[in-house]
Amino acid sequence: MSEKPYLSLVIPAYNEQEVIPTLLTRVEAALKELGRTFEVVIVDDGSTDDTPRLLCEAKGKYPWLRLIRLARNSGQSAAFQAGFRFARGEVIATIDADLQNDPEEIPRLVKLLETEGYDMINGWRKDRNDTAFRRWQSRQANRIRNKLSGETINDSACSLKVYKRHCLDGIFMFNGAHRFMPTLVKMRGYTVLEVPVKHSHRFAGTAKYGFRNRALRAFKDLLGVRWLKSRYLRYEASEVE
């Protein structure tokens, strides 16, 4: 295997055949702006369309592309965790495959991570290009999430994030954890900076997660995170010589 890259970009993909060619082209152009070595780890979350074939063909074209395939559709949190496990970079970035997160934002966020002294940069889709209902749903979800968890994050579920590797080594993941990553990182004593990022209309295809998945399950997860935060172990210890 080649030398470890500076940046690993982890992208879950589930039935995104309409998007894959454009996604890879834009990701390559964006990450080359960094002037650092990079890899892109795409986690195929059990796709049943042409996504697996397109990604396998792309491996012959893009030497920086790595493919991880889940045996069955397991959800975004499982896909992210698998990506974190296989990623080799000092810095790990994440986006969604649907191109509503702009890959072109990644170099800016990486530079903020390097210069501002934070351990994680969280994207905030301040001006969302979604339907009025989804914008309302997102506002309510973040308001309830912050009230119950004692948080101040405006957009915890935005997938555009950049981490120093130590934030993710050994992090506790569960179904739905991708919606609470800033809280999970801060619980471990690390720092998070939230910055506005561009949010685009979906490039092609349809959303794979409906109201039930996004709202009702997220609320149950929130209660679990609230409990976990209240019971999280915090201590310092050293060996006596």
Explain what this protein looks like in three dimensions.
With 241 residues, the protein is α/β, with parallel strands linked by helices. The protein has one domain: Alpha-Beta Complex (Spore Coat Polysaccharide Biosynthesis Protein SpsA, Chain A), CATH 3.90.550.10. Helix content is 37%, strand content 15%. The protein has helices at residues 20-32, 51-59, 76-86, 106-115, 132-149, 181-187, 211-231, and strands at 7-13, 38-44, 65-69, 91-94, 120-124, 161-164, 192-196. Strands 3-2-1-4-6-5-7 form a 7-stranded mixed beta sheet, sandwiched between helices. β2 (38-44), α2 (51-59) and β3 form a beta-alpha-beta unit. It is globular. The N and C termini lie far apart (41 Å). The model has no long low-confidence stretch (mean pLDDT 86).
